[in-house]
Amino acid sequence: MNTQMTKIDRRKEKMSSMLTYVGGGIGLGLFAVFGILNASFVGGIVGINIAGAIMGLPLESNIISRIIVAIGMLSGVMVAGLIFISAGAVLGWVVGKSADYVRAAIMKEHLKGTR
Q: pTM value?
């Protein structure tokens, strides 16, 4: 009976970690479809506002203001990617843990009935 319980524990670890990676991959896919364009747009707006606060509006077309806007766009994309991938991984982990608990309860009932 002890070997059967260790097999259940191994499966539990596999399911939650596997679904964590699956959730992260789904989050990455959703980020690629829905997040990149919107994040770069919002980051660019933030960069324009920061550059306007530093150099005054209307912005001149010099290299410093362009660098500030580019940094804003990159930071917007990075933050949005972090949010999408982290949320997908956490959601996958939660689904995996709940599936592990259901599987453990079913196996416990099954083992109880075979005695």
A: 0.77
Question: What is the 3-state secondary structure of 31-67?
Answer: HHHHHHHHHHHHHHHHHHHHHHHHHCCCCCCCHHHHH
Cα gap 89→34, rounded to integer Å? 17
Neighbours of 38 (CB within 10 A): 12
Cα distance between residue 86 and residue 7, in whole Å:
29
pLDDT tens string 18-64: 999 999 999 999 999 999 999 999 999 999 999 999 998 888 889 99
Domain parsing of the chain, residue ranges: 20-113
